[in-house]
Amino acid sequence: MACASLLFTFGSVAIAIILTSQYALAYLRSPFKKLPGPALAQFSDLWRVWNHYSQRHIETQKQLHAKYDGVVRLGPTTVSVTDPNLIKTIYSTRGTFMKKRRPPRWPYHTNIFGTRSNEFHSQQIKPIRALYKQQFATELEPLMKDTLCMLCNRLEQDFIRGANAGQTCDMGQYKDKKNFMNGFLQAKREPPKEVTENDVIGWLIVSITKVAATLFGKYKIELEDPSREWELHKQWFMWLRDIKVKMSLY
């Protein structure tokens, strides 16, 4: 009995020391410890987890910003920003604020939005930098106006005067409509098109081919015999052809 009590006491003390050390290190390593915010948020994310769990995080953040202004610390490495003047500071390419490291969904390919490399980001954004200027945005204003008018007219037709009047509108069904976005993305009007089976098969083949090309590009070095690589490509496209033939039978 005494031994069990001693082990329990020792374990409790050890856990307390570990937690205290962890919270102290989180506070000392935090780059945001000088920013205003809740006291518990300096040491751990438990305060933020509890606040989200209680479903009061939106109201809490509004109150914190009203009290502390535009930047509020919500955790050792988490801040909430409402000051638009800080956008250029946070999203600059100088590397002051690096994007958080996360396991990539597709490790063999990256893009301008998912990369953590400032060099890659600068290289990829150079050809499209002019698209983000105010002059280009002004040129798109008429297209945006027509697109929004088309959306509003369709919503009014379906959910105000139509058979679904008074029901909840699922905006996800409209934002993915190709006909709705053609006016803005392609700067032209197209008649409504019905998606056919051949369209789906073609999209599937193109998508799988892109994935295959990426995989072959990664493992190309690992193939010792060049003829083996061509054999893999041939088998791959024969398999795609068989899929198209089988799907066309349904």
Automatic annotation (TrEMBL):
CC cofactor: heme
UniProt keyword Ribonucleoprotein present: no
InterPro entries reported for this sequence: Cyt_P450_sf, Cytochrome_P450_monoxygenase
GO molecular function, one term: monooxygenase activity
Family statement drawn from the similarity comment of this UniProt entry: Belongs to the cytochrome P450 family.
Listed PANTHER family: CYTOCHROME P450 (PTHR24305), P450, PUTATIVE (EUROFUNG)-RELATED (PTHR24305:SF232)
Protein name per its UniProtKB record: Cytochrome P450
Species this protein is from: Lentithecium fluviatile CBS 122367
